[in-house]
Protein: M28 family metallopeptidase
Amino acid sequence: MKLSVSGRAMTAGTVAAVLLLTGGSIAGAAPAPSVAAAPDIPVASVKAHLTQLQSIATANGGNRAHGRPGYKASLDYVKAKLDAAGYTTAIQQFTSGGRTGYNLIADWPGGDTNQVVMAGSHLDSVSSGPGINDNGSGSAAVLETALAVSRAGYQPTKHLRFAWWGAEELGLVGSRYYVNNLSSANRAKISGYLNFDMIGSPNPGYFVYDDDPAIEKTFKDYYAGLGVATEIETEGDGRSDHAPFKSAGVPVGGLFTGASRAKTAAQAAKWGGTAGQSFDRCYHSSCDNTSNINDTALNRNSDAVAYAVWELSE
Structure:
């Protein structure tokens, strides 16, 4: 999350990358809808991606920041996984601060491309650390959900698109670039954008964005099924990659486990953890490494990502 500013695999058909980046349609009839329930997302698989992101940061100056080799290596890692799983991927390039940045867009073949469900996360870290919770956690959960779509051979009614954004930490640069380069017609095709930024905080809360009511209800229903209380997300409001989509009129929602704010006594009584301590004491620092993750929160939220993707795309 950026610093506050003022405040089975299916085989993909050949599809031009420019269509992915502009939100254009992919040729071909939509497959029959699936009624399958969302799969359980193995937290061990999500953590394996985090281990890889940590190794990339360690090998590249301790970070995965915009314009640094660790970011591009992170993007290459995610892209290779998606390509092998049958996605059609495209890299969108932009410039910020004199450095080249990249977004990665991955489309799952099939579904109605006039109704696109997107799930995304920012892949960059700050320059001061490896960014494993912020935002390896969201990036890894979205990646593993995308791979679960492939393993299941899922054929939803709507079209599925996944995204990993660059330069979020510099002011939502990558996601804003993507949204600004969509035509009005292609923006209108996105029926919902789901954002996942910091979903494994070590002293976690369970926060749900209160933007689009239908998306909000989807996440709340999931957590109600677990018997876990949620609260409305306020700390990161407008500070992550859902903001450009929301400004463009796209319905948005998402999950968050907290950053630098302190957990209250009431929240500790509800969720466990330590009152008076930040949700993430390593926020934007060098200790945001693989030790800076709460496995229970990561597991629950990863399953919630898949639940929402399945529910909203059927």
Summary: The two ends are 30 Å apart (CA to CA). Residues 132-152 form the longest helix (21 residues). The beta strands are 88-96, 99-108, 112-122, 158-165, 190-196, 207-208, 231-232, 252-256.
